[in-house]
Write a structure and sequence with these properties.
By secondary structure, this protein is an all-alpha fold. It has one helix at residues 3-90.
């Protein structure tokens, strides 16, 4: 058997034995970073929801104003038509 083969096999077995310990250590070390990333994402999501709700409310207000303007214009047209009919009836 070749010596390089034995050294490679020994390194592979050692690496496989160390992987769970290394993975756990990396997981423990990375946990604060992952938590901070999730916290940032959660805060950003809440802010985007708040901004979206404000935009939606502003659009609802604008739509209500436009509906009121349209109703006012229709009422003015109806009043003008009634005035024209009155004038035509007197003439």
């Amino acid at each position: 058997m070749d010596r390089k083969y034995l050294v490679g096999a020994a390194l592979a077995v050692g690496a496989v034995m160390l992987v769970p310990g290394v993975a756990a250590a990396v997981g423990r070390a990375a946990r604060p970073v992952v938590r901070a990333a999730f916290r940032t994402g959660t805060v950003a999501c809440a802010e985007f929801r708040k901004a979206g709700a404000e935009v939606y409310e502003n659009m609802e207000d604008l739509a209500a104003e436009l509906r009121a303007d349209m109703q006012r214009a229709e009422a003015d047209e109806a009043a003008a038509a009634a005035a024209d009919l009155k004038q035509d009836g007197r003439a």
